[in-house]
Design goal:
By secondary structure, the chain is an alpha/beta fold. Helix content is about 35%, strand content about 15%. The chain is globular, with a radius of gyration of 34 Å.
Length: about 675
């Protein structure tokens, strides 16, 4: 049954002040009843377009009226009526056949059928005021109660979700468990669940042990030379103390059966190079700084250790209702993508809840989600600090902080926010930093946030993806649109779906309109001025191939997994080489091939040297205008002078120190250097 809260509460009464008129004697009773009926008809028409039907058998329909909302008016003293009695509609009607009966002492009855306004979607419901009930699904005002679960819900949509969630949890409890045979890598039914030693699916009431990473016998048998050769084969470079050996299969982790099944179902067949080294290092509680190319599997490399850490905390210490892991990202879209992948890995595990804390979305549902007890928080720094200021989130139990796209987080105005968040954490916690590009200045700052870290680099750091074909075109600003339209109208180059990056929000809208007008294509736009709902819907439609072209700003340039994108066009050259690497990384993902076309001219002269230096190792053909640019030659000369000067200074310091040491030794002074 699904009923309005106002009808569920017994103390709530429905009264009509206009009916409360005094009747002096019995002679006026007939006129009083006429007044009641006329008032009822008028109110019914005004409220819900009701149809009026006569019913002369109210007393014989007592049992049949259980499915109707009855309002009975009783006249006790022939002077007034006392109250209205109500009956709640059953689930069979679902409040679509509600009837209102008005009874008097003279058996004169009028039946009014009406349809009370029930909100169908959660977006139609308001947010709750302090002290009001809250919807268990979305956090809006819990105006109704679902009798099957006795839960507060705000609409028919949330009722259906609540019932589906309840049914799913019941089905999962009754399903036979799955186990993994590591020797054959096959999944089979376990007839004797009690004999299974996998502890993940058991609640804390059944077991108190947790997951502990132990080096697999296959890895333990490898010599140092073999490990070194293995890392060289997959271009893994490490620096630090007590570095664990890289895994080569997920079975080397001895994951619990449910989690292993989720990984396989999500398409994680074998670990990528970054996952091979990062996962065992993270499981041993090391602070990490990781630099790997776009689409290398960095997200899973920190989600798998995060899930296992949460499992240990909630099952060993039974800290079920406090955040344990926080993942910080620079953009909302990236945070949503990470949460989606986290849910895939955590599916079916007990006491595993996530919360998405980002700006651009209403805050009350996010607060409500935190109050339900979550273990993993994926957030953007600004909204997280807002909730900290309101004391709506407690960070006392945080054991792991992950900062994704760390170079962006420490450069794009997030630096102070990240530092303020870290001040709220306990002194003893694990920190992991990830990005595809980590400049030297950022590396120095980030290193100050870590304690005895391990540095892991995959391939050549801060270089463009080798799975992308790079085409660099010298195009002056007035000729950009003409060149773009030529590419879009050429079947050899037009490979939808494709993404076009521009450097401004206004330019994004204007370029999209021109493409629609000149080329006749459907074009989607995405930039920071759009609301989060619009951005999410636009991205979803693009991924579903509703739009062949997406014109956007750099908001879509980091971390977003745009599977299927075959072409990226940098209409405006990014301001940094790091942004260029991230933007062209939206294609050629998951081992596929892609193409990136970039327009460049003297407007980007400040990065000519850095740009050419990054592309030269890949053997990319560069335009003559760029290679012969005087700005490039001046930057090279300046760089060479700076390098030679640095070497001279270092040499002088070394000679001076050695000279002082020799003098002190000659005088037999005991000084330690």
């Amino acid at each position: 049954m699904f009923v309005p809260r106002s009808l569920k509460v017994a103390s709530t009464r429905i009264t009509k002040p206009s009916f409360r008129k005094q009747v002096s004697n019995t002679a006026n009773l007939q006129s009083y009843n006429t007044l009641v009926h006329s008032e009822a008809k008028r109110d019914a028409v005004e409220q819900s377009k009701c149809s009026i039907n006569d019913d002369n058998n109210t007393t014989t329909n007592t049992n049949s009226d259980k499915n109707e909302m009855k309002i009975t008016l009783k006249d006790h003293n022939q002077d007034s009526f006392d109250h209205l009695s109500t009956t709640i509609p059953s689930e069979d009607n679902d409040m679509t056949n509600n009837t209102i009966h008005y009874e008097s002492q003279e058996d004169t009855n009028t039946t009014v059928k009406c349809r009370p306004s029930i909100k169908s979607y959660s977006k139609e419901q308001r947010f709750p005021a302090p002290g009001e009930p809250v919807c268990v699904i979305c956090g809006r005002y819990g105006e109704y109660i679902c009798d099957q679960t006795d839960a507060d819900v705000c609409s028919l949509e949330c009722k259906a979700r609540n019932l589906a969630r309840t049914k799913q949890s019941i089905d999962e409890d009754t399903q036979p468990s799955l186990t993994v045979d590591n020797s054959s890598d096959q999944y089979h039914q376990d007839d004797d669940a009690d004999s299974d030693q996998d502890l993940l699916d058991m609640g804390p009431s059944r077991c108190t042990a947790g997951y502990i990473y132990i080096e697999h016998p296959t890895l333990a048998s490898l010599t140092k030379e073999q490990v070194h050769e293995l890392r060289n084969q997959v271009s893994i470079f490490v620096e630090g103390l007590n570095i664990p050996k890289p895994i080569t299969e997920f079975s080397h982790l001895s994951l619990p059966k449910t989690m292993a099944h989720n990984l396989k179902k999500s398409g994680y067949k074998s670990p990528t190079p970054v996952q091979m080294q990062v996962i065992p290092a993270a499981l041993l509680n090391h602070d990490l700084m990781v630099c790997a190319q776009t689409s290398s599997g960095k997200t899973a490399s920190f989600l798998i250790p995060s899930t296992l850490l949460i499992y240990n905390e909630v099952h060993e210490k039974e800290q079920k209702y406090k955040p344990i892991v926080i993942i910080l990202t620079p953009t909302r879209e990236l945070a949503m993508q990470i949460e989606s992948q986290a849910k895939q890995i955590m599916k079916g595990l007990q006491n595993m809840k996530t919360a998405l804390i980002v700006g651009g979305l209403p805050m009350p549902p996010q607060i409500h989600r935190l109050q339900q007890g979550v273990q993993l928080v994926i957030a953007t720094p600004g909204r997280l600090l807002d909730l900290i200021a309101k004391e709506e989130i407690c960070l006392d139990h945080i054991k792991l902080l992950v900062v994704d796209e760390v170079d962006s987080m420490l450069q794009m105005g997030f630096q102070d926010q990240v530092m303020n968040i870290m001040k709220e954490l306990e002194d003893v916690h694990q920190t992991m930093l990830f990005s595809a590009t980590i400049p030297k200045a950022t590396e120095t700052l980030a290193s100050s946030l870590l304690h005895n870290p391990i540095y892991i680099s995959i391939g050549t750091p801060s270089t463009p993806s080798s799975s992308v074909k790079h085409t660099i075109l010298w195009v002056e600003d007035p000729s950009k649109k003409k060149k773009l339209f030529g590419l879009l109208q050429d079947p050899k180059h037009y490979k939808p779906p494709l993404v076009i990056f521009v450097d401004s929000k206004l330019g994004c809208e204007m370029l999209s309109q021109t493409i629609r007008k000149i080329c006749g294509y459907k074009v989607a736009t995405l930039h920071g001025d759009k609301t989060q709902v619009e951005r999410s819907q636009t991205l979803q439609h693009f991924l579903e191939s509703a739009f062949p072209i997406m014109v956007c700003t750099s908001v879509l340039g980091r971390g977003i997994d745009l599977v299927g994108v075959k072409l990226v066009i940098n209409f405006d050259m990014p301001n940094t080489v790091e942004e260029y690497i991230h933007q062209i990384g939206r294609t050629g993902r998951l081992g596929g091939k892609g193409t990136a076309i970039t327009f460049i001219n003297n407007a980007s002269k400040h990065i000519f040297l850095e740009f050419v230096t990054a592309l030269e190792p890949l053997g990319i053909h560069l335009p003559i205008e760029l290679c012969n640019s005087p700005h490039l030659h001046l930057q090279r000369e300046k760089h060479e002078r700076k390098s030679s000067k640095s070497k001279a200074v270092f040499s002088r310091k070394r000679k001076s120190r050695e000279g002082v040491k020799d003098v002190l030794q000659k005088r037999n002074w005991k000084v330690k250097f």
